[in-house]
Structure formats: structure tokens, C-alpha cells
């Protein structure tokens, strides 16, 4: 039974995708759920598995082709078994002298070489089966045309220029990188983006983490990190400041009654933002498990469209790369994004005394069309207060 291999259903925001590579060739055996082909969208690379055991019988769209939702990629025969490779024929017994190869005229021999023919391919009409030039011409005319080679996938055009010891290489953007560039330019050009800053004394949070991280990991099978506490603080603050958790749709403001927070993750293919949904109802263990799961899927290239769709707020942590301060760019249509940075010991004033504390700069970029400066500053100050006094996260005060 023949089965069609189709492009997965793409979200409305994704118009098309590109076939990256086929992992099987026509005639290969495949197992159910084995990856047949990978396609790349603007957001993620998707794997198309085999629906059942069988044999791949046709590839309709080669690597490099642009495809749309539910488009035919290829076909397979369910339940079939790939043909075994042909065994080498046993060497033929020496032919008797009477069946020696017929003589070939010189002109015919030259024409046979030009057309890749042997004496066995030509019926000689001369005396004692002698092969004449006319016999070769007839064999050439009757020879079936060679099948046209399958067009190779268009490889990315790489241009290398050199001048002495100075060399440049020009490589086209991947679909994902081009989409990231497009969205960032859209955010800069279509929003009234503004950034406010603050700094957080991380000592109380670090002390709490050092005291309870072993017991936390033993009970929940998850490590206690800083990101989960910032996600929880953001979820609490988003409920207090609904305009930060809103988005603009035309002339309407959409206020979301849930806190779906995206966590920016760097992968080999570029920046992706998987979504933790309903964080207002999640505990720290749930958040840590969700973040760890998404990080693993990003490293393995296993994120799917559902993981990346939606989101009402985003947190990005440049501190893992050593960033001290930055202005994060909005992730449209969201109205705000929180940027975390590296923790550094600095002299600060506490109770009129100069002390050394581990400090982190935080930044909130927001769309000034929907969020006023007072709301943005107060929102960031709320996160600061929650993180500096983690007990407030537990008591929700």
C-alpha cells in the first residue's frame, strides 16, 4: 500500500519551509518513526518521520525545494521490503574457440568506442558475423536514451575572494537567521521601544539557593537556578501590571489572562524562544524542569512549532556570556522583554555602610505605545524587590 509523505501542518505565521536533507534514498528500507526528511521553517527545523515500516519509493521534493503546509514530499510503500543486492555472477566458463568474439572492422571499432559499446551490443552482418560500421550505427540508433540525472540540491552559493593574505567569504543566511534579522528590524521600526534599567543585590537569593539547592535537587530531581526565580518573579509582577503582559492588535490592546513567558535560548541554528505556559500556576521545580527540557531539545534540534508559538513576555540572559549591560530588543507582538546580566561584586551602600555585594544589572525594554514609563519602572522595581527578598515570592506579598 502506497503512503504519502507530507509537509507537517505549518502555523498561519509560517508561509513556507525549505527541504534541508533526505536521510533515505529511493529504495531504502525505513522503520516507523524513523526520520525521512528534515525541513527548515523560519523558526525551527522539523523532522518528518516515516508513518510505518516500508520502502521509500519516490522523492518528489529534493533538498533545497520550497514547500508549503501539507505539500507532498515523497511516497513510500507500507509493508514492503527493500530488494536485496544482486549477488555477483559466477565467472563464466571459457567459451569454446568456435564462439570467439567476431571480427570488427577498424571504422566500426572506433565508432563503438565513441558510443561506449562492446561487441556483444552489436549484431554483425558481415561475413562470419563481422561487425561493420553500419551495424554499429544501427546499434547506436536503437540504444535507449540514458535517464536524465536527478538534479542536485542547489547548494548555498559561497563566494571566496582573496587579495594576498586577506580573504573574505560570502555565505547566504539560513532561513532562521534571515527570519531573526527580519523580526528584529520589524521590532525596531514598528514599535516605540524604550529601555529602563535597575540593579539587584543578588546576595539574599544566592544565600537561599546555597542553603536549599541540595535538598531541592534531591526532592524535585532538578537543579535550582536563578532563572526559575526570575521567571516566578516576572509572573507575579505581570499579574500586578497587566499592560506589561498585553499586546497590540491593530487598534486594540489585548490583555492576556495568563503568563506565557518565553526563555531566550541560544542554539547552533540561532536564537530561539521556547515558551513556558501558565507560569503563574507553576512552582519553581516545574519551571526548572521546563527550562531544562527546552534547553536539551534546543541542543538536539528537537524543538517543534508548538514549543515556540505564542508567548506574552520574554526573558533573556546575556549574563551567561559575560554581558554586563545591554538593551534587549522586543519580541513582537509582546510589549516588553526583561534582560538579565552577569553577576559582579561591586561596592554598594547598605545601611550607610560601603559593602561588597554581588550585583546584577537588569533591563526592561518596552513598547511605549502601550506601556507608560511609570508602569515600566515600577514593574522592574517590583522584580528587584521580589528577587532581593525571595520570601515574598513564597508569600506573594
UniProtKB/TrEMBL annotation:
Residues 103-140 form the Peripheral subunit-binding (PSBD) domain. GO terms for molecular function: dihydrolipoyllysine-residue succinyltransferase activity. Binds 1 lipoyl cofactor covalently. Keywords: Acyltransferase, Lipoyl, Transferase, Tricarboxylic acid cycle. Coiled coil: none annotated. Signal peptide: none annotated. InterPro entries: 2-oxoA_DH_lipoyl-BS, 2-oxoacid_dehydrogenase, 2-oxoacid_DH_actylTfrase, Biotin_lipoyl, CAT-like_dom_sf, E3-bd_dom_sf, PSBD, Single_hybrid_motif. Residues 2-77 form the Lipoyl-binding domain. It holds the Pfam family E3_binding. Pathway: Amino-acid degradation; L-lysine degradation via saccharopine pathway; glutaryl-CoA from L-lysine: step 6/6. Its cofactor is (R)-lipoate. Its EC number is 2.3.1.61. The keyword Acyltransferase applies. E2 component of the 2-oxoglutarate dehydrogenase (OGDH) complex which catalyzes the second step in the conversion of 2-oxoglutarate to succinyl-CoA and CO(2). Belongs to the 2-oxoacid dehydrogenase family. This is Dihydrolipoyllysine-residue succinyltransferase component of 2-oxoglutarate dehydrogenase complex. It comes from Thiothrix winogradskyi. The gene is odhB.
